[in-house]
Amino acid sequence: MRGAIAQGSALFVAAVLAAVLFANAPASAQALPGQALAFDRSKGNCLTCHDIKGGDSPGNLGPPLSDMKARFPDRKELAAIVFDETKRNPQTVMPPFGRNLILTDGEIEAIVDFLYTR
Amino acid sequence: MRISRASVVVTIAIAALVVAGARPAAAADSIDPDADFKAFRDYYTKRFPNVPLNDFVNGPYSMDAELRKQWEAIDDFPPYDFAVDRGKEMFATPFKNGKSYGDCFPDKGIGIRQNYPYFDLKSGEVITLELALNRCREANGEEPYSYVKDEMASLTAYMAFTSRGKPFDIKIPNDPRALAAYQNGEEYFYARRGQLNFSCASCHVQNPGNHIRTEVLAPALGIVAAMPIYRSEWNGMGTMSRRLVTCNSQVRGVPLKPQDELYRDVEYYLSYMSNGLPISGPGARP
Amino acid sequence: MRTYLFVAVVCLLTGAAQAASTEADYKTALAAAEAADQDAGALKNQWIPTEQALAAAKKAAAAGDFDTAVAQAKEAEALAKASIAQAKEQQSAWRAGVIR
Q: Taking CB atoms and an 8 Å cutoff, what residues of chain C touch A20?
């Protein structure tokens, strides 16, 4: 009798642990890849202002995004720009994607990953 | 204790300086529309030295030669013609009580668009052309029109058309309420809003002539002169109210109600900044 | 007995993440979000995503999905608070961009 209860409990624990693990999966596992996020008008919408290789009909309010690894060797700096460029330049027209909750931290990281391929 | 003559002189001198430097309490003191006007004008003429002053009223066409060619190509059959014709017909049609729009306006409403908005000292508010038209309707027992739909666009298209070429003549009376309305409009124009954190100035002061995706941005100088516009993107006419509402939602800000006090104030500010520039409306835009 | 204790500890540890939100939780979260959105409205600076999150919260609650409803209501509150911060900052910051 004790053995059966122990087995049932162990199964229950396993099920709970599994549910927890799946529910708390890292955001990037479910988020779109970085390029899709960058080009999506409801997400990064980067092409509205920036020329990025792979994108069509870009705007020119911001500089072209190329050579990114060389220009932004510090990943944290690039992420900070996407998060809130007004910190560096109070008059910037770049939306503060992190501060204004446009993108999640995970989405910003994914976009930075993508930008490092441009 | 004897007070020396020298110290008396110094004390009086300091007192005089303090009095001279003291600023009156009124906030209106710091509002200087004429200085703003001059700085605004100089900014655009310096940034775009090859654009004739009067051409700024053509918005993106004054910024982009390719776009201008496309615009000139459609000029033989302007897309707003139907709106002007409709507006003319509405002007000629009496209300149920026998009166008509002409009875509400100076000069029967013909050739007066360049005087709007104005500050009404009696009611202490900015009166725009759209507001005046609906108040005219209500005063004569008619239902007001939507500020964002075709009837209002037709009326203002016709009135703009009768004022084509006339220079903006916006007045700011020397009244603290008028100056406050002017400044509220200026503040609205420069303040960031919406989740995307743009101000009107972000596009129209910092980036005229640049493009978001494929859309060329117009300079703020003269930007209201072409209203109302036929917008190809909208497949129809857009009133001043519609344009402001749309700009708000494009930066993910919940729009204010059409003809909200702030919308009227910003129209007042932008119109004053365009004083002397010719009415170019109704306009056509991509 | 030790097995039961083990299960209880695991449940406690995961309990915070796994306990289902109740209708009461939702109502509390919604009230906070709507109050913040109203304050943003008084400043004439509501954001469209705030309204969308509020609508999503109400829709989820109507369907009985209070986990989603609470999450959306909390998102709405965060957005509303960000819009209030923006409006308050801009009350003085707007001057920095004026053409002089």
A: 14, 17-18
Tell me which chain C residues have a C-beta less than 8 angstroms from the C-beta of A91: 96-97
Hey, what CATH topology would domain A31-115 get?
Cytochrome Bc1 Complex; Chain D, domain 2 (1.10.760)
Provide the whole-model pTM: 0.85
Closest CA to C21 of C87, C74, C83: C74
- Please give, rounded to a whole number of angstroms, the shortest distance from the CA of A48 to a CA of chain B: 5
Q: Which tens digits make up the pLDDT trace of B141-191?
A: 999 999 999 999 999 999 999 999 999 999 999 999 999 999 999 999 999
Residue-range domain boundaries for chain A: 1-30, 31-115
Which is it for the CA torsion B203, B204, B210, B215, positive or negative? positive
Q: Which residues of B are catalytic?
A: 247
Structure confidence at residue C71 (pLDDT): 98
Checking if the pLDDT of A102 tops 60, the result is: yes
Q: Exposed (0-12), middle (13-18) or buried (19+): which is C15, by Cβ within 10 Å? A: exposed
Whether A13 sits inside 8 A of C7 (CB atoms) is yes
Chains that touch A (3 or more CB pairs under 8 A): B, C
